[in-house]
Amino acid sequence: MNISQLAKASQISTDTLRFYEKQGLLQAAGRAANGYRRYGPEQLETLRFIRGAQALGFSLKEIAAILPQLAQGQFGRAEIEARLLAKMAEIDGQLAQLQQLKSELSATFASLRCAPESTLNARDSTAPDSGSGAGVAALKRSFSR
Known about the structure:
- Strand 1 and strand 2 (37-38) form a beta hairpin.
- The protein has one domain (3-113): Orthogonal Bundle (Multidrug-efflux Transporter Regulator, Chain: A, Domain 2), CATH 1.10.1660.
- The strands form two sheets. A two-stranded antiparallel ribbon has the order 1-2. The chain has a two-stranded antiparallel sheet with strand order 3-4.
- Helices cover 54% and strands 6% of the residues.
- By secondary structure, the protein is mainly alpha-helical.
C-alpha cells in the first residue's frame, strides 16, 4: 500500500507517517518503481501499536525504546508489566502534584478578603515557591473595598 492508503487504514495523516518514519518509529518504506513509498501490513501493525501506546500515555520517546524489542520478539509479559507499572507510578505522581495544586488553589481562593468587584495588581500579591511549581498567588494584604 502507498502512504495515503496506510494513512487511511491507520487513521493517521501522511505528515504524521512521514514524521514517524523520520524519527525512526516506523521502518523506512521501500520504494515502488514509480518512486512511491510502499508499506506492508507490518507497518500498519506498528502504527496501531504506536497509537495504542500513545493512548495509554506513553511518549514517542518511550515508544521508540520499546519498538526494537517488539520487532525482535523480545518484548515479553515481564517487560510489559514493568512498563505499565512504571507508567502508573508516573501518573500517580502527577495526580499527587495536581492534588497539591488544587489544595493550594483552594487555600488561595479561601484567603481572598477583597470585595468581589475589586481588582488586584502585581504589587498586591506575590507568587511564592510552594514546591508544586504552580506559583500560587498569595495576597500580601487584605482589601476591604
